[in-house]
Design a protein that fits this description.
The structure is a homotetramer of 464-residue chains. By secondary structure, chain A is of the alpha+beta class. Chain A has two domains: 3-244, Glutamine Phosphoribosylpyrophosphate, subunit 1, domain 1 (4-Layer Sandwich), CATH 3.60.20; 268-452, Rossmann fold (3-Layer(aba) Sandwich), CATH 3.40.50.2020. Chains A and B meet through helix 1, helix 7, helix 9, helix 10 and strand 19 of A and helix 1, helix 7, helix 9, helix 10 and strand 19 of B.
Chain lengths: 464, 464, 464, 464
């Protein structure tokens, strides 16, 4: 999948509780390592239990934080921090929607970092408005904050129970609640949330790569429906709602979103992707000279395909790491220019070769079409496209920014038609069975709505 | 080689002559594709032969240019453009030194884009000052501009002849000279310069990847000592100075600087790097489970090593594409943190494995040491470091920003000592002979000063 | 009074209701003309009754708004706008505290612009927190917003009645309440608020100079304790709380804060200041050659003093309209440098002259001391300082940023001592009686706490 | 004259030579006090005689300099500094044209600050280009720098003699020449340049108000055609060219440009303006109730008019010190809005009054027309406009940015017609004789080209 047409994950969350630590710096490194999950805004909140302060801004983590604001966030008495990096899927992009969302109190305070997308935000909001509450942001996350605030005096267990009962959809939450660090995951566990340890201190993060960054150890995943409370008494856990049994973790975390060096539910992301590539080679073998990935998203699966098929793995496309502006009006010519600026072929690799081109998914099909055209111009004899996931046919309502169904090529055309449209010599999608074998799992353990249209947790607007 | 300790190339140059073309946009895409050669400043100058205008700024190409200034640079009557992307090796970093350097005239104008480093800038400057000329920048490039200006009325051939006679060192130049596009390369051809064609129009660029970006075709390299004049009469070429026979193209362009999709002197950069990896496997075979590169610099050679050795190629280190700040005082701990933030290991790949770790070079040795430590912590059983070039023992005076000799680890320690210092289980550097075999060439065809200390074109300050 | 030591007013508010008007532009010009009341941040909110949008930023009105955001705020269907320009007296300076504060609803919305300072914000906040409400800003204004939100469903009359009953201190409010424009002034009317008309449309503003700016007509002042509701039914007014009878409008609005071209409670600010100057001339006549103001604050009173005394009015100090940085460590020498950079004497005006120097007030006394020194150095023979208000002895709790009592020179020294300290030949403060005569009023009609220490509306923190 | 239509002076220059002084800070304060002479860019250069460094930027002095760059400019060994504040009259506005222009040498350096406008820049440039020199800016000032550079080796006297012989037009120059401070003024002395002393150190500045700012003493004006050389030997002076006797100092420096607290050629600017007002009262007496200035430019003359006529001086127009954007398409309505936002009338001052409205000049007549309309709407019964200079009929070629003759109302209409156009009840311009009496001088002692069309120093482009 090409970056321009990439599906966008919405957020990364991070939380840490501990004494005598450089909490703000650890939070910074935590969300820096989760930067791939959102590049629109970033924020850190810290608290000593009484006085909560925060800094948020638009842009990349490295743009938002500087020596001045980091110094202000680095107070020796702080005991808890949460942080967030955001790509907006609900609510606008403005600074107003940057997270953590903060509630200030004369004593204490709350800061909320949320990954996911609620499906009944509008109806919750309507009820809260009738009770005299109001909203300062466009973000569905403020619903959670309002519910927690309303039940704050009952303590975190009471308040989070209310959240679980009222809110539907996907949510993985890291939260400062006065002097406590709270973790919460929706009953289906659609978005990831991991628990780690740094010395005696507890850490929460969307992905385990954040633990690696700060030198912490992955302990386990937070369970679907589980509330985690960390304070001076240590860690306290409670399942607030049992799993529906109809769905689970977003399967695209394995296919594309999570970083290859993360481990989720005990599975290495890299290894499962390599395995997907191996399965793909079994399902769609082809006589070819080289296996080459669309960098970087197709690389792990391409390595697997190469290992299984015995065809040499070769880099053939060079990715320009810098971002260009094009200054050109839209159109087919521009689309190809954009692809060519981003991904440049090595002619000597492709000339007269039969190529297996591996990517993780096809969304609209326009960029892979341009890419194939470019590779052919570089001299390739045959191009066999291999996709390490099933056809993408349904938009996501749980936190991924996807096009309308009308723009999803696989929702409207057969594999054969797509193959012809993109100009490939053959096209193979990994089957659902192959995917499950690679994951060593069953479909009901995952959210596979994008491949099946089965929205077990409802759709946005269902009850509005 | 890790990015933090990367050797820095100074510049990329681009020039185009033609009618009815969107010259500014083509120049923009040209230097965008040369962005890897310099990220400090960027600039474009265009001329209709009479009226020359330019825009320059600090930062990346995409930061310097926006719709407003691109619209100003996009004049329908323009016939020639040059552009530059810069990393400073001589002169300060300020906007004042950004290129193209411009000389304005009542009729016509000159704009100069230069890649390389002069060794006798100070003595040239002294002479010019005595003749009443002065300098507005800190850059050695202004010496060339001053010489050209002084002999401008004789036309480009006379003026450039003066440049070749007076100036020593490395220079590849793309220049607007009133209504002409000029290309010039130093007699040894130390820095690359290619000639291409886009339809009927001629193009000059540091690397052929810039031609790919704009859909142009590589015709040939500009020859050492060759002057190229392009105007309404077409292309005119003249050898202004014959090659010394003692040196040639910077060998590091093949090893690291140039983009893998470029072709220089008829050789594919990617292919020669893969070949270096193959030679390395022949010279330093080892019993191992995986071959993995230091991304991205070691990837091409690692693919070659894997092919030759039959050991599987695997990605094991995930590169964080974003830039972090560390907010931490210097020290060993911080160095490792920085490496870990940039390159994160996949534990499942390394656990209990014998690893061949491939990179293109070792400069100081501190970052590879941190990296080895990180990979060991991720569970690797053995780490065999393979370097696809000879030991780096001498600083560059021809346009690469290198540490002092005291900081070059291979200048001060034996391979065995380095192996011990970095904590590897074995260490192999590609020999000069192996390198030459990979390049299918002879040492005297290249500048190999960094590996040999043989400065055939003199050193900076020699005659000051 | 010199600008560096100026007392700072906190805010200017503006509101307008009407169809087919360029509401955002009118709001912009409104707060631009109130810019003297606050330079830290500015904001505008507009609504069509359903959909409320806003833009806020730090800095001057002209810095915060540009063509892009003004275009976004300029929607043809909008019917109501409020705007704010801020100097912070309570709460921090960050963007988070910029006004109008906004509450978003699925249908409708509220935007609140507030001038004044609450004295019981902490206790209100404590109660609201116990009811499950929370705060996102540091500003006391959010208390008002929370109260209104809680009682929103009863409509504006019910909600604003709650505000009046719960809140104590100074507040003049312009507010969007769904499809209505609301005006509210505290029962004592401490901060000004005027009602105007532009064609058929109603306008609210802190000062009438905002009406002049947009071509509107001043109708009357909003009465103390009065609620104004403007909607499609026209204007509806109700006195929510009767005046305490113990205080009234801040007397410093007449002395210094308001713009000379504003009219408050039927009195021209300029004319009352001229009248203060006349009274001052009657109370403290002196044989002198020239009357000269400390520009710009003393100019109106100086004109009055000159008219009454028959001594020629002359400009003698030139004010540098630009803002300097000093880059110098604090100290007496720097203080004088800063004064001299800001106010430069014309030697030919002062040489051998007996000077009456008129200003509106003395706060710390350090800058007038420097200024007298500068004028003496320019050759003045005698300097007679005349102050057009009584000695300033008590800090303000109702919306003016004042030093501690310990730093108020008149709170600690006699007039004679002050005269000696500042180096004047004589010093005269307008008496309270003279001030009242100039205002044609009685002390109980004004808040005179700064001259008397009589805090009839309580002090900040009284009931915390 | 209203600010929007103000004539713009191009520059202020400042220079200082001395040991053990905070040269950069003194230069900063110097140009800060000359900020009224140019607000587009600012710059400071300092040198120890060998190593010259500088900082320049676009915008106000306070925007260009901050603690970081001031610290870099504050070197203890420096002995000479020059500084500049610029409004562009020739050349574009870009940073490239910001002054001081700098010439760097291996030993020493030059930095040039220039006020004025050359009339033969193009022909000089053509000659220099033929000799091999080139230009990096659009500014005519670079001609001077190029000439000096060419003759640098003869020393400053030789080089500056060349400047005087080759260059025609207006120039007041402060320059670093290696280890010397140079002052130079054109033979007619069109632009001002003063010599002052701070302790043992010499100072140069466009106006004496810069000396007041730094606590220096005005010694005398630099003479027309005089070269000043200041170095370790002290001050050396030489008349390089004798005055033509046909013209002299720009008379508009007295009327409007210079700050009222400056003294030029022994005359206080404020006093001469007051005197112009007195002469105006004598020439155009009128029965009226108040005299009021257009602030700030008419204030000094209005005070004079009031003194002479015995009519009370009153402020009636309040100037908004902040800058607004209007976001409105051009047109008559907008013009009046702009005037009203900038200058707001006090109705109580004007109601039923006969008003004498004093300003220093009328350029286009459009803004005074709007202003009269505004004052009439505020209730004035009669408005008698008095202008403290003769009709402005000819554009300036010597450093003032003026409209074309077609746009100068007095170049095209009689006083009676202008009176009718602007809607005044009467209009009186100070006659040339009255002006000379106020200045106690003769027309040939001044450049009066704007009132007479007598361009004694030629016009721009004369010899091109």
């Amino acid at each position: 999948m090409l970056h321009e047409a990439k599906l966008k994950e919405e957020c990364g969350v991070f939380g840490i509780y501990g004494h005598d630590l450089e909490l703000a710096k650890l939070a910074y490194f935590g969300i820096f390592s989760l930067q791939h999950r959102g590049q629109e805004s970033a924020g850190i909140a810290v608290s000593d239990g009484q006085d909560l302060i925060s800094h948020k801004g638009q842009g990349l983590v490295a743009d938002v934080f500087n020596e001045t604001n980091m110094a202000q966030l680095s107070r020796s008495k702080d005991i808890v921090a949460v942080a967030h990096t955001r790509y907006s899927t609900a609510g606008g992009k403005g600074i107003i929607n940057a997270q953590p969302l903060v509630a200030r109190y004369l004593n204490g305070g709350m800061a909320l970092a949320h990954n996911g997308n609620l499906v009944n935000a509008a109806s919750i909001r309507r009820k809260l408005e009738q009770e005299g509450y109001f909203f300062q942001t466009d973000s569905d996350t403020e619903c959670i904050l309002n519910i927690v605030a309303r039940y704050r005096h009952g303590g975190p267990e009471v308040a989070m129970q209310q959240v679980v009962e009222r809110v539907r959809g996907a949510y993985s939450v890291a939260m400062i609640f006065d002097d406590k660090l709270i973790g919460l995951r929706d009953p289906d566990g659609i978005r990831p949330l991991c628990l780690g340890k740094l010395g005696d201190s507890w850490v929460l993060a969307s992905e385990s790569c954040a633990f690696t960054a700060i030198g912490a150890e992955l302990i386990r995943d937070v369970k679907p429906g589980e509330l985690i409370i960390i304070d001076s008494q240590g860690l306290h856990s409670k399942i607030l709602s049992s799993k529906s049994g109809k769905g689970g973790l977003c399967i695209f975390e394995y296919i594309y979103f999570s970083r290859p060096d993360s481990t989720i539910n005990g599975k290495s992301i890299y290894k499962t992707r390599e395995q997907m590539g191996r399965m793909l080679a079994k399902q769609y073998p082809v006589a070819a000279d080289i296996v080459t990935p669309v960098p970087d998203s197709g690389r792990s699966a391409a390595v697997g395909y190469a290992k299984e098929s015995g065809i040499h793995f070769t880099e053939g496309l060079i990715k320009n790491r810098y971002v260009a502006r094009t200054f050109i009006t839209p159109g087919q010519e521009e689309r190809e220019l954009k692809v060519r600026l981003k991904l440049s072929p090595i002619p000597e690799v492709f000339r007269d070769k039969r190529v297996v081109l591996v990517d993780d998914s096809i969304v609209r099909g326009t960029t892979i079409k341009s890419l194939i055209n470019i590779i052919k111009s570089a001299g390739a004899k045959e191009i066999h496209v291999r996709v390490s996931s099933p056809p993408y046919i349904s938009p996501c309502y749980y936190g991924i920014d996807t096009p309308n169904e009308a723009d999803l090529i696989a929702a409207n055309y057969s594999t054969e038609e797509i193959c012809q449209f993109i100009g490939a010599d053959s096209l193979g999608y990994l089957s659902m069975e192959g995917l499950m074998e690679a994951l060593n799992g069953k479909p009901h353990q995952f959210c596979t709505a994008c491949f099946t249209g089965n929205y077990f947790a409802g759709r946005v607007g269902d009850d509005d």
